[in-house]
Amino acid sequence: MRKNYPENLISATGTAALAAVFAVWCASNSYGAVGLTSAAVSALLMLALCLRFVPVWCDAWRARETLSLPASDERYICSKIFAAVLLWNIFILLLGCVLRASFGVSESMAQYLEFWRCTDSRHYLDIARDWYLSEGEWDRLVQLVFLPGYPVIVRAVNLVVGNYLYAGLIVSALCFAGSAAMLYKLLRLDMAHGSALRGAALFALCPAAFFFVSPMSESLFLLCCLACIYLVRRGKTCIGCLFGASAAFTRSLGIILLVPVLFELIGRRAKPREYAAALLIPAGFAAYCFINYLVAGDFFKFMEYQSVHWNQRLGWFFNTAAYQTENALAAIGSNNFWGLWLPNILAQLISLAVMIAAVKKLRASYTAWFIAYFVVAVGATWLLSAPRYLAAIPSLPAALALLTEKRPAFYATAALSLVCGIAYFAAFLLRWQVW
After folding, report:
1. Where are the alpha helices (DSSP H) in 142-217?
2. Helices 364-378 and 317-330 sit at what angle, rounded to 10 degrees?
3. How far, in whole angstroms, is CA 332 from its chain's centroid?
């Protein structure tokens, strides 16, 4: 009983806190029965995940972790994974051209590539070309909300390529392939070769994979996150946290890396200097805030732009489930239902279900990372990009690798991901509000 006391206390406290927050939220909102039901389902799924996670968490901290050693032959395998995903990236680009032609769009290859400026890509490419603007058109001023990590790399590559769009596509392709290889390296610290390979394959085949092809920051962000955790687990905490700082300089969600990093450091009873190195991660985001100050005279100007222009603030993840479900019902039969609301809702529910199923097998720090990431990313008050955001959390392919140990399960999951990916990609190419 004494051994289980921490688990029981954490579980009871967390359950009571979530119940209280949900009750207060219900009292202050006017959603219909369907919206409230959807919010309750989301909250209950998260509660189930957390309750299953607590014993894994406590066991991980009771046992003293040792530094992980890499697999002996992984360099050759990683090269093959890198090459395969690079070819997969090119295939996705070519498939997009074929699909747009089948939709009746007549265009040259150069014109087709210009299509990839849609969504947030144009903002990143504008920043790479012109940096942030302190005066001018409103649409250009609000680009300050997009973090500078990716545009800085694109600007550097453009010095060689001479075209910002092509430079962006090259950076994304290399980082996409690099992320798959790094994911394999990370999974090999805990899994057999076959399981790690399945994780890398299912990552590359995820329905939102085309976002890693697009000239946006997801691929670079993910590569930095994976490098951070891999190096921290190898005991190279300072270098790893420099990659964590780069992730936080690329996307604000990079700050969440503090959760798995601290989880790993506590688990292995790290030295004080390693905890100090973890402060490099928020320093990356602090550098972005300093850029806000230099451009707009306010360290947190991005928060104002997010709120005023995009109606984005921090909220509760179950509130997102409520408004997305109600918007989906209102949009049934329209393009917005198929391209926007349904994929967003499914991404949230399926990711929670996958993590619930895998939590007992998955490394504790990866589950902690997912929970923190999900709460923040999905909690946005006007979320349109749940599939894209959730594709960039490595906990999900790691969980799927553990859940598909039998070949039929892996083949079924891969086939379903591929079919859903083609359908979602088609909606993106048709601009059915896929963000």
Report:
1. 149-161, 164-187, 193-204, 210-213
2. 50
3. 27
**Could you give the angle at the alpha carbon of 186 between the alpha carbons of 419 and 366, nearest 5°?**
80
Q: Compute the distance between CA of residue 212 and CA of residue 392 in angstroms, rounded to an integer.
A: 9
Rounded Cα distance between 392 and 351, Å, is: 12
* pLDDT tens digits along 279-296: 999 999 999 999 999 999
Helix, strand or coil, per DSSP, at residue 68: coil
Residue 222 has pLDDT above 80, yes or no: yes
Q: Which residues are CB-contacts of 366 (< 8 A; sequence separation ≥ 6)?
A: 260, 394, 395, 398, 399
Q: Structure tokens of 349?
A: 């529910």
Tokens encoding 135:
């005066």
**What six digits make up the tokens of 56?**
């894994």
Residue 25 to residue 213: CA distance in whole angstroms: 38
- Quote the CA–CA distance of 59 and 52 in Å, as a whole number: 12
- State residue 37's pLDDT score: 97
Widest distance between CA atoms in the chain: 71
- Which phi and psi (to 5°) does residue 313 adopt? -140, 170
How far is it, in rounded angstroms, from Cα 148 to Cα 130? 12
Question: What six digits make up the tokens of 131?
Answer: 């940096």
* Rounded CA separation 253/220 (Å): 13
Which tokens in the block code for residue 315?
A: 């909220």
Give counts: helices (H), strands (E), the chain.
Answer: 23, 0
Structure token digits, residue 68:
């992980």
d(CA 261, CA 242): 12
